[in-house]
TrEMBL record:
It comes from the Bacteria. The keyword Acyltransferase applies. One of its GO terms (molecular function) is acyltransferase activity, transferring groups other than amino-acyl groups. This is GNAT superfamily N-acetyltransferase.
Length: 152
């Protein structure tokens, strides 16, 4: 449901979603204070549409407008034979928040993964992102790993 009480549809991306997706993507980057080069955004969009790429997205749409997205990477692992899904980016448009769309987007990945035989779905966020963490804790408690990230 959106804040206006309308149901949001969770679906695969289509080529003509690009402008709408770029609006969400820009909001997401702004949330993180990030300013990625255009070449990176263009490559991400190409990968989202490329069925051979391990990157894939799911969109929440309401009245034909995108109101939320997940962008994910399906990868192999060493501790499991079945694929592992990394939920890299989750964003709901500010005007659509607090109406269950974030929850529906994660539930959608849980359903997809169950149907397709993935072994795990994982994600991380900043310790201080209380809104996101409240949502995440509805699915699973955070573990006690911390992240090391060396930029090359
Ligand atoms: C985090 C985010 C995706 C949540 O999306 P959302 O559609 O608002 O989330 P939902 O409406 O599904 O909320 C689900 C739960 O989160 C909590 N929550 C979310 N937004 C809230 C708000 N503004 N105030 C209070 N609680 C909130 C609630 O506990 C709610 O659970 P409940 O209804 O059972 O109490 C959204 O706020 C967002 O895009 N934030 C900016 C980007 C970001 O932080 N991304 C995730 C980190 S990578």
């Amino acid at each position: 449901m959106t804040a206006a009480g309308k149901p949001a549809l969770i679906r695969d991306p289509a080529a003509d979603d690009e402008a709408d997706w770029r609006r969400l993507w820009a909001g997401y980057l702004a949330f993180y204070g990030e300013d990625l080069p255009e070449a990176v955004t263009a490559a991400t969009w190409r990968r989202i549409l490329d069925p051979a790429s391990p990157v894939f997205a799911r969109f929440a749409a309401c009245d034909g407008t995108l109101v939320g997205m997940t962008v994910n990477v399906l990868h192999e692992g060493t501790w499991t034979v079945a694929p592992v899904c990394y939920l890299e980016d989750l964003f709901v448009a500010p005007e659509a928040r607090g109406a269950g769309i974030g929850r529906a987007l994660i539930a959608d990945l849980v359903d997809l993964g169950t149907m397709r035989g993935w072994s795990r779905l994982y994600w991380h966020t900043k310790l201080g992102n209380a809104e996101a963490r409240r949502l995440y804790e509805r699915f699973v408690a955070a573990d006690d790993f911390c992240r090391y990230r060396l930029v090359l």
